[in-house]
Amino acid sequence: MAETNFVDYVKIFCRSGRGGAGSAHLHREKYVPKGGPDGGDGGRGGHIILKGNKNYWTLIHLKYARHIFAGNGESGGHSRSFGANGEDKIIEVPCGTVVYDADTGEFICDVTEHDQEVILLKGGRGGLGNWHFKSATNQTPRFAQPGEPAIEKNIILELKVLADVGLVGFPNAGKSTLLSVVSAAKPKIANYPFTTLVPNLGIVPYRDGKSFAMADIPGIIEGASEGKGLGLRFLRHIERNAILLFLVPADADDINKEYEILLNELENFNPELLEKQRVLAISKSDMLDEELIEAIRETLPKDVPHVFLSSVAGIGVTELKDLLWTELSKDVDRHTTITHRPIDLSSCEDDWDDVEEFDEEEFDYIDEDFEEDWDDEKK
């Protein structure tokens, strides 16, 4: 996935459809001088609906969709004819999309399953026709309800990548190299920090046609949970991963210290992340001899399965895939409470154009073509 095509943050102005007006029609037929009210109800306005689609991986298809409108309901007709409902507008989004109010920063909803539908904005209800208001004291009501108005909202869509395995590590730990070796993904690889600026997703093939998804998360540094480096923007992607694969290079000054720093940043962001299954991989291990590997092995945390790895030399790659599949196959509760923090709007990119104001049409209470006055006193 090309980095320029990865979009995980968009702002959109949405408006549901307004309800159609009820009709104030009075029945007119030959030899039926006083047919009574027969105005139909107005149609419902269209909803704005979010729908999960597993075939989408980014929000790029919504990058330039700045305005999304549902259809308006049609007015009711004579003979109690109901107006047609407005067309619903379905916004397809990747699984893992979170929605916020762009004006307040408050969390609205999230979409996590394929084909899951969430009504983001409800269309206005149609107005009642005048036949609803007929009574013993008012046999010919000449009024009807207008439809309910549309609902407008500025929203922010954020994507939290869904993957089986999430790669966690400092910049230049070898995460992108590993992903390029075990999958068909082609992330940018270079010998400088923060080469990866957006998450990359790859499908890792396994035995007997099995596979699992692996996400390369941009490098984390100490203080990332407070906004340093690439900050909070990409830490959120880790919440959706089933297993966290920590990569620490063999040439690190202190492997355990780097691992603890990474754990600390995740805990500061969301303490429940520490309850996820973890695997520790010591990358760039081709520079170590067997004696040094055994010495390092003795110092590693005992509660986390580990593997010594060299993506370039192909050392430990098969062992790592076996270990990850074993962990994924375990019957454990992988539920993690997702942290839906209100967005700090002051730090968001203010790329809104002035939203064009739309004049709402006035609803008529009485049909324009109704001109005949009824004389209720005549029998």
Concise overview:
The protein has 379 residues and is an alpha/beta fold. The protein contains five helices and 14 strands.
Structure description:
With 379 residues, the protein is an alpha/beta fold. The protein folds into 2 domains: 1-159, Spo0b-associated Gtp-binding Protein, Chain: A (Distorted Sandwich); 163-329, P-loop containing nucleotide triphosphate hydrolases (Rossmann fold, 3-Layer(aba) Sandwich), CATH 3.40.50. Helices cover 13% and strands 21% of the residues. The protein contains 5 helices and 14 strands. The strands form 3 sheets. The protein has a 6-stranded mixed sheet with strand order 10-11-9-12-13-14, sandwiched between helices. Strands 3-1-8-5-6 form a 5-stranded mixed sheet, with no helix packed on it. The chain is rod-shaped. The N and C termini lie far apart (79 Å). The relative contact order is 0.15.
